[in-house]
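Practice problem 4.
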């Protein structure tokens, strides 16, 4: 079951966002989300009172972004335990909601492990629910801390790679700010750090078709933070590189394979090719929880295929569930087939560096990535 609380959105509101929270209203526990399908027109809180409602929110991208999906998955398990639902079934539903984002499964498995440990110690329903909720809150807190550390490491790398000039001109793709994180984000947090230090000359924001996460969400966050930014269509990026207007590319990741291959929002791979040709650093910023040692290489990454309606119809904010047939304005003849992968995969040889909360690895190799992740305080759960 899901409910909505609506308030108008405005560019001048304070930068703090309540993106995801646990609530215990009189009628029972719930996971409360900022519905990202309604941004930037209005800020809508989506109240998910059960796991099926949360799964729908994940699939329709009301909640999205690799680190935040992990947090949502953990809270989803906590919700199932609190309601007395079948925990194994709830975990399976959550884990399968989006196949490419590795953090989702990580958060679910971590919460399930907390539940199993509590039950194994003889805890009844109340203490078991409290243990799982505590684990979800711990993951939420850890991700916020990781976000700050990634920002510092990423900013230091930018200063090393781009020591001269009067500020950085950074190109980003999709959305990687507070809307995807327990903190201020991944790649966006690095750009925000540069802005706060007076080192951001321009943030170039890809609109990110077909769902416009850059136009709707990154521009929204940049506006809230008073950052100098310009929006461009995805197919204008090549001319921007050719004009010498890009100093570095900053993107996030939904899954990083053991060899350093990076799955991210579709459109990332072409940017990597452009960056390589124009000798521009291509930097991936993601927590170590996004690295999946069980996925050996890029070819092993399962790429989610999204509904055709996302391409054949234009979805305006508030029009309904993303990709829902008949939910938007048709922009192609009825019955048009569409190729709509949610992600593409960039091979490690096109990645200048991967920045995590434990530091950066460059050049990107499997051995270097494994050594970096070995320093992580995060628990690897298979």
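Answer key:
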């Amino acid at each position: 079951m899901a409910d909505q609380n609506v308030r108008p959105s405005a560019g001048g509101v304070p930068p703090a966002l309540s993106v995801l929270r646990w609530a215990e209203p009189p009628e029972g526990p719930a996971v409360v989300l900022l519905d990202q399908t309604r941004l930037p027109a209005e800020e809508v809180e989506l109240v998910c009172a059960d796991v099926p409602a949360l799964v729908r929110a994940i699939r329709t991208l009301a909640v999205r972004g690799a680190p935040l999906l992990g947090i949502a998955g953990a809270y989803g398990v906590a919700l199932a335990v609190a309601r007395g639902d079948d925990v194994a079934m709830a975990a399976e539903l959550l884990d399968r909601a989006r196949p490419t984002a590795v953090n989702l499964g990580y958060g679910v498995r971590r919460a399930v492990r907390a539940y199993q440990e509590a039950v194994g110690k003889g805890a009844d329903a109340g203490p078991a629910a409290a243990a799982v909720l505590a684990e979800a809150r711990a993951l939420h807190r850890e991700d916020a801390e990781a976000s700050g550390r990634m920002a510092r490491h990423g900013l230091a790398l930018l200063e090393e790679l781009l020591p001269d000039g009067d500020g950085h001109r950074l190109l980003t793709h999709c959305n990687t700010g507070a809307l995807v994180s327990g903190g201020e984000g991944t790649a966006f947090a690095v750009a925000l750090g540069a802005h706060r230090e007076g080192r951001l000359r321009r943030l170039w924001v890809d609109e990110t078709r077909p769902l416009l996460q850059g136009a709707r969400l990154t521009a929204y966050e940049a506006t809230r933070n008073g950052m100098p930014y310009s929006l461009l269509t995805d197919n204008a990026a090549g001319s921007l590189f050719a004009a010498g207007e890009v100093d570095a590319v900053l993107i996030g990741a939904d899954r990083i394979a053991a060899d350093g291959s990076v799955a991210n929002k579709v459109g990332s791979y072409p940017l990597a090719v452009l960056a390589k040709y124009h000798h521009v650093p291509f930097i991936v910023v993601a927590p170590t929880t996004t690295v999946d040692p069980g996925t050996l290489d890029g070819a092993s990454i399962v790429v989610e295929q999204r509904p055709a309606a996302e391409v054949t119809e234009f979805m305006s904010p508030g029009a309904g569930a993303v990709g829902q047939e008949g939910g938007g304005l048709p922009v192609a003849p009825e019955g048009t087939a569409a190729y709509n992968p949610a992600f593409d995969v960039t091979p490690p040889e096109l990645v200048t560096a991967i920045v995590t909360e434990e530091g950066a690895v460059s050049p990107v190799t499997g051995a270097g990535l494994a050594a970096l992740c070995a320093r992580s305080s995060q628990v690897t759960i298979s």
